[in-house]
Amino acid sequence: MPQLKIEVVFLYLVFVHYGDTAERIDFENLYTHLFLTDQTELLQNVRPSPYTEVTGSLSLLSISSLDEVSGTFSVMITLTLSWQDNRLVWNTTNFMDISNISVPVTKIWTPSVIMRNSAKKVRTLGLENNMVTILSSGKVILNIGDFLETSCSFDVKHFPFDRQNCEILFVPWLYPNSSVGFKQRVKTIDLKLFSENGMWKIIGSKASIQYIVLSSEYPGVVYAELKYSVEMERRSSYFVLTIFMPVIMLLLLNSAVFVLPIESGERVGYSITCLLALAVFLTLTSEVLPKTSDPLSVLSCFLMLLVMTSAMICTMTIITLWLHHKDEKSPMPMYLKKFTHVMSHVRRCRKPPTMNKTDASSEDSPTSKAGPKPKPFLVNDDEKDGSNRSNKLVIVKPAPVQMVSESELSERTDTEEPYSDITWKTFAELFNFLCLVLTLCLTGTFGSIYVLIAGGNL
Description:
This protein is 38% helix and 23% strand. By secondary structure, it is of the alpha+beta class.
């Protein structure tokens, strides 16, 4: 039994060996039939026909980076080109049903495609030792895998909620449209092998043909090129959490300076500390902001407005302290008194009125309506004459009421009575309250406007 097994294994290896040799010989015969003939040089340097139509398709593998400063778009792609070459047709029955063969790209004619919008030097795509696949029908398939850096114009106006559209353009080297024409196999970019990017999300793609007309020096010369457009949307969660929210929180903390008591003595230091913290934070985050002025990012303008608001808070804090400690003997303009009186009246109107029961009962009593009741008091007669020491109860009637005209009464009321208790400290407290409301409104307004503009709603 062991000897029989050894013979079976030996026969199996012999058949396998001869089977491999026969297949290799068929490939060698096919290669000799196609390339080792008198037309070898013609296959390399002459087009298959006067007009050759090349079909292209692009497969996007990954997005390496998008640099807004240098305007470059780096990707890894696979470009598939196919065309018909009737000089490379064979009968499969004569070559053991071999339907395709792979040969070096230098053995046949290729369209020599270059990338027109390259960010660096212009070169022919693909590797020097690249391979092409030839079918028995004469169809040639060339797969070009390469790392490309294209030039792309970025619109960072709505950063970090922006969308970018970058193009990849392929044109045949020295072949006008009358000699080599292009067409797309599909109308989109193949994303089956695409590796997701952590910063960009592809929301659409388009494949089309674009024609280039040269200047008047070459009339009638038109070049066809493969145009691939990639539309991407930036993933904005990182920038919202690391830039937008911290800046808003710092400005709200800066606005809280108007809640501190004026006598605390820490208001100016607190406001300047918040301003410095905001400036340091913007310095640290400046690396992730787009460094371009055409167009200017809305986020950069928004951050600058917040810095200006923080500086305004420091200024208003100093003004509040100056008003609070101002000499009360210095005259206060009448328009400030009137403004303080009106705003104080508005603030008091928002509070519900309070009334004691005793006040209500006294107002409802008939004596209160009749007028003030005379108050009795004791008079010591010893002060008049030293003989009588008894105390007498004397009722003193109020003095008669002086009649004043309505014009004089209104003039007194408008000029003296409502504004007599208004001082510089009263105006400082009102100014402090208005500054708090103003800064909170500005922070909310700037944030809302930025979200609307960045989201494309304005």
